[in-house]
Amino acid sequence: MNSDFSEEKYEKAILELFQDVLGYHVECGYDIDRDYENPLYIPVLEDCLRSINRDVPSEAICEAIRRLQDFGLGNLEFKNNLFTSYLQNGINVSYVSDGEERHVIVKLIDFEDVDRNDFRVVNQWTVTNVSEDETRRPDVVVFVNGLPLVVMELKSPSREEVDVSDAYTQLKNQMNKIPRLFYYNAFCVMSNMEINKAGTLTSSEDRFMEWKSTDGSYESTEFADYNTFFEGIFEKNRFIDILRNFLLFSKDGQSYSKILGAYHQYFAVRKAVMSTLEAIKSNHKAGVFWHTQGSGKSLSMVFYVHLLEQLMSNPTFVVVTDRNDLDNQLFAQFSHCSEFLRQKPVQAESKDDLKELLNNRQANGIFFTTIQKFDDSEESLTDRDDVIVITDEAHRSQYGLETKVDTRTGKIIVGDARRLRDALPNATYIGFTGTPISSKDKSTREIFGNYIDIYDMTQSVEDKATVPIYYEDRVVNLKLDNDILHEIDDKYDELAMNAQNSDIEKSKKELSRMEVILGSKETINTLVDDILKHYEENREYLLTGKAMIVAYSRDIAIKIYRRILEIRPNWQKKVNVIMTSSNKDPEEWHEIIGTKKHKTELARKFKDDNDPFKIAIVVDMWLTGFDVPSLATMYVYKPMKGHTLMQAIARVNRVYKDKEGGLIVDYIGLSNALKEAMKDYTANDKKNYGDTSIENTAYPEFQKQLEICKDLFYGYNFSDFYGESNLKRADAIKGGVNFIESKNSEDAEDIYLKESLKLKQALSLCRSKATEDERMDAAYFVAVRSLLSQITKKGQISLKEINNQINQLLKHSIKSNGIINLFEGGQEEISLFDPKYLEKIATMPEVNLARKMLEKILNDQIRIYRKTNVVKSEQFSQLLNDTINNYINGHITNEDVITELIKMGKDIKQAQNEGEKLGLTTEEQAFYDAITKPEGIKDFYNNEELIKMTHELTRKLNETKTIDWRKKKSARAKMKVQVKRLLKQYDYPPKGLDEAMKTVIQQCELMADNL
Fold this sequence. Notes:
- This protein is of the alpha/beta class.
- Helices cover 49% and strands 13% of the residues.
- Helix 36 crosses helix 37 and helix 36 runs antiparallel to helix 39.
- The chain is flat and about 105 Å long.
- The two termini are 27 Å apart.
- The model has no long low-confidence stretch (mean pLDDT 84).
């Protein structure tokens, strides 16, 4: 018996958890008689809808079920969006009673009484797509009231060759092959016990997220077990709450994004809502919601508003920001979610407009405004007490309560926060922020109260909601005087404070003098030269190459732009300036800055990973609320402090594929400001991110990993890699793989892949700090890793792809004379049936590499056979295992095993050709092989009879392929009878060869399993 914890055993463990711990009813799909074209559990659905909607007539229930099965035209996202609306809001149906048309809402879920819903889990739920001749069986489907809301794909925790990514691939394939099942999908789950993640049908793999808590605690959640994941999401009350309040579609034009709230959003929003309801009854201070930048704060606001709408009687929301571009960005986010909110947000054009909106509408409403719209008038806009004020970045300095006197004019100046309070005296206030409140900031607490929930950088990075940010100091490259930098720093800080108007004017004049220094031609030239050198040598080929340059002023932004194009005139599409325009701008700036429409188009292009627009030069715009996940580099030439600084640099902390972290390249001296800004962060954040300098973090880690990789290559000379010959360089890379493969240790390959990955990740952050020798060594080890990983991962090897990847890696470190060809002429996929590739591999001097590549090619082909042909898979799998075992046990040499593998490849090629010569499809050949497996079978039948049997058997199985006869006992018995009866017409099997029927049945089972 196999001691491994197989996928089947893990599946049973999950079913037990749902049944014994969560209280769900568990069934096996093979035991349910149903129409496989319909993914709904119709009998359960009908009973539940009648039970939940007791006062709704039967004809309305029938109409709702009909609507559930006919979504009309549209793609998968469109239909799923419509179903999600039905799920959360019910189906509005009409029916005729007493000759009169009536309307009623048919609820699909009882959100008020969870126990009235039916919760069940079914494994192996078959769904057939007749039009595409496709049938699939997801591992586990979670049903509520007969609706297949969650699809799970599980993978064995003990099979190294399969990981959770395979589950993601299966889910995407199912969406393509049996899309109807996913019309009703709330979200998907992929799990292999160690990694457990949930995501929606529009989520990329890196946006599937873990659920790490059952009570909202962030402690000890670095690693979450599968019990926490499943109990955290699928506890009945929480599951229903998630379906109703934390699942939404964000629609931008024709683009749909379905979003499942993360665990930190769920628990924090719940806390915020409870705090708000208590504040309405008391001091109207709901508190401060601090979730670090990039962790989904804007969406948390949407979830918060939606949930309060469920719990309050038609509340009105006023969302306040301090800048027009932020107002537009947040308004756009709410607008994209308007279907979920069931109302469209409105931007107030002025204070009077906001007053009219509030007073002309005594219920509902989501209104957006900037703090600046509240002038010095003491007039109340409304005295209503059901208004909730949501303030974005609540602790900015301009939200003060202070009242000051301008000593020059004698005018009394009232703080923005005081004016807001005066305008909405009975409202309840909540603050949302991505950075902490300063310990010196008393006014923010006076307005909003204390923290509701804190989700810090440390937890966000652990949860992979964001990536860490690192810092590189390049001030010295500009040769700026330190005294001048300190003076700029002080003056900028003074300007940023809530100072008197006269002080601000004075500071502006001082700053204009600083701009003369920072904007001089010599300084700009030096700055741009260094940025280009750093970018082209270290960052251009990282991820998508997106980078941002933060300029000191609008004038300096233009100067940087012009200097870049002066040096790189062909970069017209690659670099752009994004900043506000002014009537005072010189005429020649107009074409550079462009219109509002132009900036909107640039934003779209910068967010497009494939667009040639790679470098954005900004001043203030795009420094908050603008997300480009692949953006990994920010060049800063502008002093910033506190929350302004932390919000700006957070542009590079978004998660994207294998992005290791964001890099801030500092040209203005931010180190002290960074340390000062971190004072109010959590103890964990100060410990983990108090020093983000790559000099002290990534670079030492890189050097450590470099030494580890050198140790792993002890005894191998790869000096040819340093020469000018691409041929010798390619040979050194192949030789390195050969060396790793030659080690006797079974885990040598895994150790090297793991350690060289750490080297690659550290190098991505500190490449500019590494010496030339270090970069060359690292380039070699990473290139070896790339080739080794290509020949060990599943799927066919593309020689062209290997060559491209190696060349891309080496661009960073080596000025190559030409294109490196690891495999000469390798421009196509390696085909098992192309003799020239097999012979090329067989004659490689690196025999260990050759053996590994051949073994991989044969394994890939046998893996295909394993899903289609029981006879061939057994035959070739045994041959391969015997050959490799003989090699491992020292019975044959490397050269012998290569000869055997080449012969096996030719045998597989010949086996395929035999089927083609007989006029058989791949499916038919599998049955032909099963029928003809017994030795001497052709003594009883001529080939025409065998082929006729094959055609008949294949046709019969195809006609009944929607039946789960392999698992369902009654159907299996019936199918066995049909197969035997069919073959009996040909007197098959012959007397004395009764085992032959067993092989045929096995092939039928294999075909059924892989429909």
